[in-house]
Amino acid sequence: MPRDSDAWPDEPDESDPEDRWGDPENDLVNVPSVGGEGDEGDDGDEQPVEIDSELASTFWAVVVLVNVGVAGVSLGAMFAYFRGNFLLGGGAAVVGALALVRAYYSYRGYKAGDAAGADDTADADDAAGADETDGDG
User: What is the domain count for the chain?
Assistant: First the structure.
């Protein structure tokens, strides 16, 4: 009596559908790593990049404010619409909107201060250059 596994002895073996792609880990293009001169992969010897403390604090303040703003506006709208709780929903939406406005003004204030700082540096360089050329007379 034949076994259950031999129910169709003349059936061909199923092919593996992944055989048509070959070995992707060996066949793919070797992409070089991004790094400086003499950087060979991930050695872990990377030097940290120095970032201006004002830039870092402004960045994180804007990140937190935008997160609070998006959460407040979206939760406020959901509380107002789904629960009918307009007091809580409206309050959350107002707090979220104020947080987004504050994030916008924080970003614009830093950008304006950064541009003013660049202009001051450029003006100082221009003034130094003008003093040198005035002495030729």
Answer: 1
The span from the CA of 6 to the CA of 133, in Å, is 99
Record the tokens describing residue 44, joined without a space: 């872990």
Assess if residue 85 is contained within a domain. Answer: yes
pTM for this model (two decimals): 0.54
The answer to whether residues 97 and 72 touch, using CB atoms and an 8 Å cutoff, is yes
Asked if residues 100 and 69 have their Cβ atoms less than 8 Å apart, the reply is yes
104 part of a folded domain: yes
Range of the domain at 82: 54-117
Encode the chain (137 residues) as per-residue pLDDT tens digits: 555 566 677 777 777 777 777 777 777 777 677 766 554 555 556 778 888 888 899 999 999 999 999 999 999 999 999 999 999 999 999 999 999 999 999 999 998 888 777 666 656 556 555 555 555 54
